[in-house]
Amino acid sequence: MRIALFVTCVNDTLFPDTGRAVVRLLERLGHEVVFPEDQTCCGQMHYNTGYRRPASRLAVRFVRTFEGADAVVVPSASCAAMIRDNYPRLGASGSRLSRKVARMAPRVYDLTEFLVDVLEVTDVGAYYPHKVAYHPTCHGMRMLGLGDRPHRLLRAVRGLELVELAGAAECCGFGGTFAVKNGDVSSAMGADKARHAVESGAEVLCAVDNSCLMHIGGILSRQRAGVRVAHLAEILASTEKEVTAR
Amino acid sequence: MSSRERILARVRRALADVPADEPPVRDSGGGFADSHGVGPTLEVLEDRLTDYRALVRRVAADRIAEEVAASLERRGASRVVVPAGLPREWLSASSAAWLTDTAEEPVPLGDLDGADGVVTACAVAVAETGTIVLDGGPDQGRRAITLVPDYHLCVVRADQVVDGVPQAVRLLDPARPLTWISGPSATSDIELDRVEGVHGPRTLEVLLVEPTS
Amino acid sequence: MSGTFLGMPPFPEAARDAVNDSRLRHNLRKATHTIRDRRAAVVDEMGADWQRLRAEGAAVKEHTLRHLDRYLEQLEESVERAGGRVHWASDAAEANAIVTDLVKATGETDVVKVKSMATQEIELNDALARAGITAYETDLAELIVQLGEDLPSHILVPAIHLGRAQIREIFLEQMAEWGVPAPPGLTDDPRALAEAARVHLRERFLRTRTAISGANFAVADTGTLVVLESEGNGRMCLTLPQTLISVVGIEKIVPTWSDLEVFMQLLPRSSTGERMNPYTSTWTGVTPGDGPQEFHLVLLDNGRTDVLADTVGRQALRCIRCSACLNTCPVYERTGGHSYGSVYPGPIGAILTPQLHGMSSEVDEALPYASSLCGACYEVCPVAIDIPEVLVHLREEVAASPGHAGERALMAGAEAVLSSPRALDAVQRAAGLGRGAVPRHLPGMAGAWTDTRDIPEVPAESFRQWWNKRGKGNQ
Prior knowledge:
The structure holds 3 protein chains of 3 kinds. Chain A is of the alpha/beta class. Helix content of chain A is 53%, strand content 11%. Chain A contains 14 helices and 8 strands. Chain A has helices at residues 9-14, 16-28, 44-49, 52-66, 77-90, 96-104, 111-118, 138-143, 149-155, 178-181, 183-199, 210-222, 232-237, 240-245; strands at 2-5, 32-34, 72-74, 108-110, 131-134, 161-163, 204-207, 228-231. Chain A has a 4-stranded parallel beta sheet, with helices on both faces. Chain A has a 4-stranded parallel beta sheet with strand order 6-5-7-8, sandwiched between helices. The longest helix of chain A has 17 residues, at 183-199. Chain A starts with a strand and ends with a helix. The relative contact order of chain A is 0.15. Chain B is an alpha/beta fold. A 6-stranded parallel beta sheet of chain B has the order 1-12-7-4-2-3, with helices on both faces. In chain B, a hairpin with a 4-residue loop joins strand 5 (124-126) and strand 6 (131-134). The longest helix of chain B is centred in the first third of the chain and has 12 residues, at 3-14. By secondary structure, chain C is an alpha/beta fold. In chain C, the strands form 2 sheets. Chain C has a 6-stranded parallel beta sheet with strand order 1-10-7-4-2-3, with helices on both faces. In chain C, a hairpin with a 4-residue loop joins strand 5 (217-219) and strand 6 (224-229). The longest helix of chain C is centred in the first third of the chain and has 23 residues, at 22-44. The mean pLDDT of chain C is 94. The interface between A and C is large, with 65 and 64 residues.
């Protein structure tokens, strides 16, 4: 299957390893990955901060860039949720944008949905010899309804021990511009999430959203807590060969 | 323009988006269940009442008078309020002094406050939620008599018990003043933890009359 | 006599103090987690039916709002037919004047009150005090707040911010000022505290001839009012006095008696996490020989018709004040209710208050941002109010206001970069070159991040640079 990768602006700029991991993983599973170079940003930051028009313009660009794709894979649950849940609210009903969104939204997948639902694979042949805790990010859990897909993928990874994360369903406090507009509350929420991560005994905290991980990881790093963060894609892309080669 | 007219005009202006031909009647039928109880109705009711710290006893239909007397005696209740329409035979085995509340001669508030308890029947009971509903009928009396005394003994007949809330709502007459009672008075206001016993009767005792077979 | 939210700082500032108050954090965490777990247990018990009830609750409320004029007229007719009198109040001042006049007409100077958000909203107690009338709060938490000269911080449990030891102190110090004193040996056992409240208010209930309440529901077709409560203070106020005055927001209507089949299931489980609250009273006008013989219903607008006019924001009027959204909100858990600077705190307050007020202050403008948009509130809302949707909608209104020119410029700059892959690539390359030169602590807005969090290392090469190189390598 030919898969269009929407890497997202945050991953493109700050976390290219995640994008590379998705490419490596999907190619390993025998699929062709394309990267439409006109892509930029889904508009989530603008939309969530109250800037609807810029968000709409970015949505139009996204739709134009990806409308020909059979499947669009996004290694960010919140961006996938922006496209699927919020794009339909951007265009007036019956408008060209809303018609196009209605056609393409069902073909936009978070990486875990794509693997489990479309490729119907949970064992992706990964090897990752670490204790890992999974943080279900809010938009993945509540907007996309990812359910236990990430857990199923993680449990099939050889060498990986999945540990329980207390208070898992609670928001980490990132929330986009919330992290700076309400920095104190955001940090307090993040500190609790970081504490749970440390108490879980995990070496690695993983999630399907690098923006949340940037926030939690920033706190863990500042506290020198000894827990790393990693995007789920990077764990799934990891194989015995690479781990040994390291 | 009166405030009434002003508010109604503002409401109508606010609803300019609602199509004029949208029917003002809603098709009901949300498809929700009448109850979510598990097991036989009386057992569920007993379980739920007990869960909310009510005292519950199952009694035979021909033993109501003896059981009422036993409950009052255990409680040490000697001055007891009863509504005028309560079956007198229920009281025949007890030696308590009865303060009978009638429409013509309501028991004064001070006497209600000084009474040891009150005995009533009920209109409907809901198993799933452990709820007893009073509708001010002759065997239940006006609302104050089940409120001011600290002990309420309520006789519930098996045929008055329904499984769930929707069935109770259908049976009740909204024109009457209704009191839904689920356990004794309680509060969650201190650290959101439930504590029984504030202003209403601190003890609710239910005599659940078994169906006669 | 009572505090006021006027003059409080906007959310981020108020929240900073709250977040650093360890006792408050402890009280809130304990209480919200307790109630959260209880709600989850009784909602899970309902199985798949919960979502059906939730959808039905939302549909009934939405339908009512879309035909509110008709239902208001029907309610008025039903209440008057049953012997009640209906009054209409456009705003807080008018509602307060109506209630004050009604109380004066009874000749009483003391009134007992059932907990009511509507009367908090219009600051009725202060208005009555100015007319020489003392309003006695009878709900335990409201009593604590009134005695402590504090402000409510939660819709259901206004004293949630206080722990048992603090409540004991307030009772010992203040009860004597208001009536029957607290027993000298009072402990902080919740049972003892509840008993003290019982003794303190007992005489008051038996003596007072006029009561003021709100209502959870007003049934249009029968004219029935419904109050759910736990302690019995509601029954006392609704039953013993001669005169009852109920102040009810115009959005509290449900069309028919049978709609209570839905709401009597949704509300208790969402609110106190019980299958059913201990007491529910319903009354229809006046019943000869039973309860108050004079009944007044004051229908309150006070900004609600403005909310109604906003087709996105309108859904906030479905709210049945259960407070499940407060109890589940990670922001509320850490800031408490006072930080919101409004009678309605938490997620619902963040969308309701600015709409009721018409975004008239800095406090109102900060509220739509008092959320990480995690969606937990929407998930638990028994009438499916999409709170995140309304928050974003209100942010649009704030972002367009004159005070936000700086942010608008930043957002326009971001859009310029994100509208062009070439511009984005240029920024990524520049950042890649400048990596290592970023200090650990940044000034200004960015400082809000780096005060507590490290920033990620900027990679040497962006994903798109890597992809392009790789493409060339493959060819």
